[in-house]
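pasting for the record
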Amino acid sequence: MDEFKKKYVFKENEKTIAFHKSRRMFCIYENKLFIAKPNLSYSHAVWFEKEGWISKEKDDLMNSLVRGMIDTKGDIYFYIGYDFEINQEAESIFFSHLKELVKKLNLKHNSEIFGGLVKQGSGKEQPRKEYGRIINNL
C-alpha cells in the first residue's frame, strides 16, 4: 500500500485517517455504482485493492474509474486518476449515476456537487469545477 501513498502524495497520519473516516467513498466500476462502508480509514486505492480491482503492479484503473466522496456536509466530489482530474467522460459517467447515488445515501437535494480536486498540500483541496446543487442536476 506504500506505492499508493506515493502516487497519492500524502502522508498517512491521524489527520488523514480522521479525514478518510469522515467521508463516504463511492465509485462507478463497469457502469455500476459501488458505495463503500462508512467510517473506513483508508483511501480509494486501498479500497479498490481490497476488492481485487487493482494491485500495486496493475493500477491503470485509477486513471479511468470515476470515484468520489460525500463529505460531512453531504456535498459530493467526484474525479478520476491519482491527480483527482475531471473530464467530459467522467462527468457523463458520474451524472448518469447521480440519481441512484442520491437515493441510496439519502442525500439532501440542496447539497453541492464538485468535480476534481486541486491538491493544496495543506489537506484542504479545492474543487476544479462546481456544478451547483443536486436538485439542479437530477
